Amino acid sequence: MEVTEKDVERIPVRNLRVPLDEFVAVWAAAERRNTEQAERGMTDWHAGGVTVTCRWMARAVVRPASGPRHLARPPVSRHDERAYEELIEAEYLAAELLDVRRPDLVGSRPGWCEAIRTTLRWAWRRSGEPPIVAPARSAG
Q: Which residues are registered as beta bridge partners of 71?
């Protein structure tokens, strides 16, 4: 999924604790990496974890290749509620224990749990580095 201007306009700024342009750059980089790996027939669980977390925080509309469009779901709890501050905090706390509560994911989806945690720590708690290196934007 490409991150569009419409996607960016939908992002509630209160859902982020990092600058909007940095968040969008990381989200777009994760989406590109996820797509590139899929085109090679590979599953990149790290990029996927970053992607689903960013989509949910951004309240993105997911546009699957087949099937109806739908609002992004949270990466851990998977309920149908849109992201808002209290829910993001609850999701962050759940993500911190994800690999303990779901040890099967560590082997079946390598990098998934850590990607979700890293994304929430960075974008919500403003702790640590971005989960994916985004290309530097030109100042021009």
A: 61
